[in-house]
């Protein structure tokens, strides 16, 4: 069996797909993590498991399953608790769908009765008031007031963040006291003190040598300051390096630096066997569960007995801590025990042990700051039986501090650029493959040395692409217009959605955008929602801006031949275009006032439509030219088109009086041509129909032939008569309900009725 699906459920007739995966064609056992929670995060119990084979590894093979084992929790008391909570969730969900269905069909008395007897909350109180004002009473001024109140209460925030953002880039030209800035480089490291507004930069590769200068940028003052021209000259300071990483501890103000690729690493060659290098440390992480901390001088001093001196002396992964606060501010030390329970996570990277032809990668490790110990969480071996994240280098890893989840994606393994994505839930140790190929789901191409930052509050990951390669062995490309991407997710264990981030269109000729690059560095301030990008390699200098990337300056810069030919493919005087520019990027989204304006435009469209049916045409025309026009974005083509189409309601024939079963006066009717008997077919149509579509389609609809009475007549409910307002006709009630559901598109999911309709959940065609 190659490809298969797994379904689970409490009965054989109602099962849910929890896995769609494939098996390798070998004898190594494989283990898959099966989804056991719904989209709301609630656990669901399982009694039956169904495996559906989809394909075999060969056309002449019959699908066969030899061995299956399941692991999970089977404790009866725990399973019973899960079952009870799951049943309660299902009951609540079904009842909320029923309540929505009843209110849509104007069964308001049963709706109120169920609410009072069950104590359920269908929606936020402001949204309930909005339904009364817009649907039942037609109080448009009150409806607009409620929309503004909902915006002030944060009920429209989700829609605002879900809108397509645009990147606004600003080049930062600050200097230090001597008028200098960090020189051109790639493969350097940056981290940020978000509370102090400081960006730290260290090391890198300028095309000819590794650097060990240390800088800090003050965002508020727009100034650079060189903390050290050469940290290798300081006590315990790190030497020149590239392809390292830095993180900032906001609680202690400490900077942690790990990994290196120095000038001599790629040129040295030691005649050691694989057994000799088993315990050697790696370029970006440890290779043992308990990693030995070495001093900078240990490379020149007598090494321990184990492992062999040849491995330890040249290939130790130095781990430093730099103090930015307290009495030790400005000094480098090694990691000793500190207060608190904080951890640093390291994944992947190529192992630096001199065996350049043998590709070796590191796994996933955690460093406990309190105990100064390393622990291996995942070996990164794809051939193991348990779920594992394949090791790689030149990839991205970000941490969601709210859910304690790591996201790992892209990079390179062997000669392949990767486009997969994994999540690792730290509290449970659960690994989930979100995408095997996110390019097929609208994401970026397989990429290498891309940079990524995360905003846990918004549940968004911002990706700044680097080098791309269509397939193994093909040419590596640095695209002339390399797009940036945003990845949105609702839960860490479910795939999210990818979208490109376009830049803000500016009519100014002086507006600048950063050129495509790789081996750059990006940090993010979640407080100000600002990204900072520095340096990198823009590829080969040529008249054609769409050049190809040179791998010399990439994330790991491992090829000995390129290091030996630095004079030919060197830095600024050669073919490569290394950068020293510094940028900040902010995502521009619609403002809260803009969201309110769009909602008011929807409300005034319905108000204008009813004025055309009930009042003088001149009054409606004046309202269109003044009140409706004032909430239209005339620079938006779609809004302008919709606004102009509203004029057709003035030119339409006046509606004919139609009696209603509830005795509603004909004056309260609608020009849609729908009376109480033929209003039911309109519910077949999508509730997202525009006002123009409703008018056009309903005006052309002929009265149906004699048929059985409709179950849903949309008649006036007794609840409406007690409110002291004139009840709308069935057709107008339907129009206003559609307006209300369009307004709900702006409202947060947890503050409104379910998006799905009850009819869509009932399958009568099976």
UniProtKB/TrEMBL annotation:
Keywords: Repeat
Gene3D superfamilies attached to this UniProt entry: Galactose-binding domain-like, Kelch-type beta propeller
Pfam families the UniProt entry points to: Kelch_KLHDC2_KLHL20_DRC7, Muskelin_N
Region annotated Disordered, chain positions: 554-578, 654-731
Biased composition (Low complexity): 679-690
GO annotation, cellular component aspect: cytoplasm
Spans through the membrane: none
Domain Muskelin N-terminal, first and last residues per copy: 1-124
UniProt name for this protein: Muskelin
């Amino acid at each position: 069996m190659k490809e298969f699906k797994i379904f689970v459920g409490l009965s054989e007739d109602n099962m849910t797909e929890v896995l769609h995966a494939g098996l390798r064609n070998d004898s190594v056992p494989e283990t898959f993590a099966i989804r056991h929670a719904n989209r709301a995060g609630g656990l669901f119990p399982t009694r039956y498991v169904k495996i559906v084979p989809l394909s075999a590894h060969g056309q002449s093979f019959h699908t066969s399953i030899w061995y299956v084992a399941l692991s999970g929790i089977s404790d009866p008391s725990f399973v019973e608790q899960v079952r009870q909570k799951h049943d309660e969730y299902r009951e609540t969900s079904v009842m909320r769908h029923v309540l929505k269905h009843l209110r849509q069909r104007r069964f308001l008395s049963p709706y109120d009765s169920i609410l009072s007897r069950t104590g359920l909350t269908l929606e936020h109180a402001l949204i309930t008031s909005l339904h009364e004002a817009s649907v039942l009473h037609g109080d448009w001024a009150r409806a607009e007031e409620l929309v503004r109140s909902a915006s002030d209460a944060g009920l429209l925030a989700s829609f605002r963040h879900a809108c397509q953002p645009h990147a606004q880039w600003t080049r930062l030209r600050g200097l230090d006291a001597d008028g200098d800035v960090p020189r051109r480089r790639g493969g350097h490291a940056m981290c940020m003190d978000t509370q102090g507004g400081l960006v730290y930069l260290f090391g890198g590769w300028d095309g000819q040598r590794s650097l060990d200068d240390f800088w800090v940028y003050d965002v508020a003052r727009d100034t650079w300051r060189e903390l050290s021209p050469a940290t290798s000259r300081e006590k315990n300071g790190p030497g020149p390096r590239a392809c390292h990483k830095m993180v900032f501890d906001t609680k202690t103000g400490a900077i942690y630096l790990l990994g290196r690729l120095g000038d001599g690493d790629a040129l040295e060659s030691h005649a050691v066997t694989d057994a000799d290098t088993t315990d050697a440390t790696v370029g970006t992480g440890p290779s043992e569960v308990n990693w030995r901390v070495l001093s900078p001088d240990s490379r020149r001093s007598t090494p321990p007995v184990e492992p062999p001196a040849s491995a330890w002396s040249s290939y130790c992964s130095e781990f430093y801590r730099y103090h930015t606060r307290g009495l030790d501010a400005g000094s480098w030390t090694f990691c000793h025990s500190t207060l608190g329970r904080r951890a640093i996570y390291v994944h992947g990277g190529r192992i630096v042990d001199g065996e350049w032809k043998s590709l070796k990668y590191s796994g996933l490790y955690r460093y406990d700051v309190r105990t100064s110990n390393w622990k291996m969480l995942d070996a990164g071996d794809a051939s193991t039986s348990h779920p594992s994240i394949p090791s790689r280098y030149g990839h991205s890893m970000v941490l969601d501090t709210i859910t304690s989840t790591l996201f790992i994606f892209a990079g390179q393994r062997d000669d392949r650029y990767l486009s997969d994505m994994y999540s690792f839930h730290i509290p449970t140790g659960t690994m989930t493959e979100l995408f095997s190929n996110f390019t097929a789901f609208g994401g970026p191409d397989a990429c290498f040395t891309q940079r990524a930052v995360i905003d846990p509050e918004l549940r968004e990951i911002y990706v700044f692409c680097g080098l791309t390669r269509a397939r193994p062995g093909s040419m590596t490309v640095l695209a002339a217009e390399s797009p940036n991407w945003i990845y949105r997710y609702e839960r860490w264990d479910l795939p999210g959605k990818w979208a490109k981030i376009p830049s803000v269109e500016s009519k100014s000729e002086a507006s600048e955008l950063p050129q495509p690059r790789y081996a750059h560095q990006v940090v993010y301030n979640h407080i100000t929602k600002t990204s900072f990008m520095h340096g990198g390699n823009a590829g080969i200098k040529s008249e054609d801006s769409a050049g190809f990337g040179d791998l010399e300056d990439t994330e790991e810069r491992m090829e000995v031949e390129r290091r030996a030919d630095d004079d030919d493919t060197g830095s600024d005087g050669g073919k490569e275009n290394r950068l020293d520019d510094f940028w900040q990027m902010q995502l521009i989204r619609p403002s809260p006032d803009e969201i309110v304006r769009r909602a008011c435009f929807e409300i005034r469209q319905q108000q204008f439509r009813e004025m055309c049916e009930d009042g003088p045409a001149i009054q409606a025309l004046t309202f269109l030219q003044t009140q409706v026009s004032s909430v239209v974005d005339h620079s938006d083509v779609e809004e302008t088109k919709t606004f102009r189409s509203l004029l057709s309601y003035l030119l339409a024939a006046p509606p004919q009086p139609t009696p209603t079963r509830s005795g509603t006066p004909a004056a309260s009717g609608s020009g849609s041509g729908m009376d109480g008997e033929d209003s039911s077919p309109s519910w077949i149509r999508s509730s997202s129909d525009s006002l123009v579509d409703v008018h056009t389609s309903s005006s052309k609809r002929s009265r149906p032939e004699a048929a059985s009475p409709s179950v849903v007549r949309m008649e006036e409910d007794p609840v409406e008569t007690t409110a002291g307002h004139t009840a709308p006709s069935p057709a107008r009630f339907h129009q206003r309900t559609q307006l209300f559901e369009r307004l709900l598109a702006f409202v947060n999911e947890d503050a409104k009725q379910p998006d799905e309709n009850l009819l869509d959940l009932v399958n009568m065609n099976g």
